[in-house]
Write a structure and sequence with these properties.
The radius of gyration is 18 Å and the shape is globular. The longest helix has 20 residues, at about 5-20. Strands 3-2-1-4-5-7-6 form a seven-stranded mixed beta sheet. The two termini are about 30 Å apart. The chain has helices spanning about 5-20, 30-40, 50-55, 55-75, 90-95, 110-125, 170-185, 200-205, 210-220, 235-245, 260-265, 270-280; strands spanning about 80-85, 100-105, 130-135, 155-160, 190, 245-250, 280-285. It contains twelve helices and seven strands. With about 290 residues, it is of the alpha/beta class. About 50% of the residues lie in helices and about 15% in strands. It has one domain (about 5-285): Rossmann fold, CATH 3.40.50.150. α7 links the parallel β4 (about 155-160) and β5. It binds S-adenosylmethionine (SAM). S-adenosylmethionine binds near residues 15, 88, 89, 135 and 161.
């Protein structure tokens, strides 16, 4: 990976702040505390609160994917978790309250160092909550940094939300290779909401001009399209997953619509959100033991 590419990823860091600020309009535990801390430190100069107010579908999306992934996590009895591109997600903070869980948060250096410092301010240190620097696309794999923290012979749960959507196809393949290596070594599952089709994003932008503005702002900030790096159709996403050697089980995000607090907080029309979530799924991916 050359220096230019590394800097390129570093710009995606900013989107971590955008979605974190969107989560403040939900009842997700610790979301408000985290958003307040980052605003207090003046790190975000995107006049987010005003924008986020209008970007109701971004908030609905991030709340739905967070809660849907949590539902899928609950179906597995796996106690070691590696979260990729954690950004400012509060999941590690929540799940590590259970001392039987080893939770490893990872992201690019700048973001994960910042996250660790925020968590330190909020709850101090926890012996089962770890922060490591992982560029998920890097070859040779940086996932190896997590192995001293993981128990050999026990499965691992790999999570990511809002990472693959920014990456090119080649970069997505690199992430898949790194995840396959981990699942070969430990067994387990990869749970992600990141297989999205561009059509659904286009429709959501028509329903919410705030989302359109925000995706454009994100594209300008990162130099990467926040729409076009997704899959043309869901069928193409499924084909990609299959070709990458995974077997997928899909969980439709509509299952969490009754849990979405932002509908009331932001006064969002549930029908618009229903339309958006119909085509959104969380994928639970395991290694396909019989690739053709
Ligand atoms: C849209 S944010 C999502 C953050 C978090 N998952 C969430 O939902 O709030 C994208 C995240 O991807 C991280 N990121 C970008 N490129 C990455 C890479 N190559 N490897 C690991 N993380 C990366 C950014 O630092 C940022 O935290």
């Amino acid at each position: 990976m050359n220096k230019q590419q590394i800097n390129d990823f570093d710009k995606i860091v900013l989107t971590g702040f955008m979605v974190s600020l969107a989560r403040q309009f939900t009842d997700i535990v610790y979301a408000q505390e985290l958003a307040q801390l980052i605003e207090k430190e003046g790190l975000v100069k995107l006049s987010q609160p005003q924008n986020q107010d209008k970007s109701v579908l971004l908030t609905a999306r991030v709340e739905a994917r967070y809660k849907a992934i949590n539902q899928v996590i609950a179906q597995y009895q796996i106690t070691q978790v590696l979260e990729l591109a954690s950004g400012l997600l509060p999941r590690g903070l929540l799940m590590s309250k259970n001392p039987n869980i080893t939770f490893i948060e990872s992201d690019l250096p700048e973001m994960i160092r910042y996250k660790q410092q925020l968590i330190q301010q909020l709850v101090g240190e926890r012996s089962n909550l770890h922060f490591i620097e992982i560029d998920a696309t890097s070859r040779p794999s940086e996932f190896i940094k997590s192995t001293p923290l993981l128990k050999a012979g026990q499965p691992v749960m790999i999570l990511c939300e809002g990472l693959l959507t920014h990456l090119t196809l080649v970069e997505k393949e690199l992430v898949c290779t790194n995840i396959r290596e981990m699942l070969h070594r430990y067994s387990g599952v990869w749970i992600t909401s990141d297989f999205i089709d561009t059509g659904s994003l286009m429709r959501s932008q028509q329903d919410d001009s705030g989302l359109k503005k925000l995706l454009q702002a994100g594209t300008n900030l990162t130099g990467r399209s926040l729409v076009n790096n997704n899959f043309g159709t869901l069928e193409q996403a499924r084909q990609f997953v299959y070709e990458q050697g995974f077997r997928a089980t899909e969980y439709n995000m509509l299952k969490v619509i009754d849990e979405l607090s932002c509908l009331e907080i932001l006064g969002i029309d549930p029908e618009v959100v229903r339309r958006m979530l119909t085509t959104q799924s969380v994928f639970a991916l395991t290694l396909d033991s019989h690739p053709s």
